[in-house]
Design goal:
single chain; alpha+beta; Aminopeptidase; 7-stranded mixed sheet; 8 helices; disordered C terminus
């Protein structure tokens, strides 16, 4: 008997803390987040706050899916054509970001979000797309099908709508994982800061034509 696919649900507000802790564990060694939050002593605490901020802001313009009990994975999407406004950020707590992250980390985070959004607009030729803002699977649960199950609802909806999906990958090791899901690298984005060089990969999954049912 085939193993049942993991059940995917919309994340409830009362599970944001659990979800943000999972996301922080998943991105603990991520090079881009280590660039955004260079303070090693407070890195993990600030990373958790950043993840909570993302989960607070995403429901205004998108959807957050989760899988597992306890949680094993999170996928936060922005819907096609939706843009995070300053008011959305204020509601999610952006004014307190310098206090929680430090001025340098808050500035870096804002800058990289603006720059990558501008790049995607150029690369997508202004077309609307689903944007995978955050995607994390618990380190101990990788390779068990949680990631594919998490993304499947939106990938299927995107195909039905004929709309592409985009993401910004912050770790070279994850490229084969995204490629297995149909994403392809469109362009690399390099950040150079003194002797530190980090990269992001703008990746896109083109909408697949769905088969029409026989009438």
């Amino acid at each position: 008997m085939a193993k049942a696919a993991p059940k995917v649900q919309v994340l409830k507000n009362d599970r944001r803390l659990e979800a943000s802790n999972l996301m922080a564990r998943a991105f603990l060694a991520d090079p881009v987040y280590q660039y955004l939050i260079p303070n090693k002593k407070s890195y993990e605490r600030r990373l958790k706050w950043m993840m909570r901020f993302m989960l607070r802001i995403c429901p205004y313009r998108g959807v957050v899916h989760c899988v597992g009990e306890p949680l094993q994975g999170i996928a936060a999407w922005l819907k096609p054509g939706e843009k995070v406004s300053f008011l959305d950020e204020v509601k999610a707590g952006v004014l307190s970001a310098p206090f929680h992250l430090g001025i340098r980390s808050a500035w870096r985070s804002n800058s990289i979000m603006a720059e990558t959004r501008k790049n995607r607009t150029r690369l997508s030729e202004g077309k609307h797309y689903w944007y995978l803002w955050q995607f994390a699977v618990a380190p101990e649960s990788r390779g068990k099908g949680y990631g594919r199950a998490l993304l499947q609802p939106v990938l299927e909806e995107a195909d039905a709508m004929g709309i592409d999906c985009w993401l910004d990958n912050s770790n070279a090791a994850n490229i084969p994982i995204y490629e297995a899901l149909g994403f392809r690298t469109v362009e690399e984005y390099t950040i150079e800061n003194k002797k530190q060089i980090v990269k992001l990969w703008h990746m896109c999954r083109r909408a697949e034509k769905t088969k029409k049912k026989d009438r």
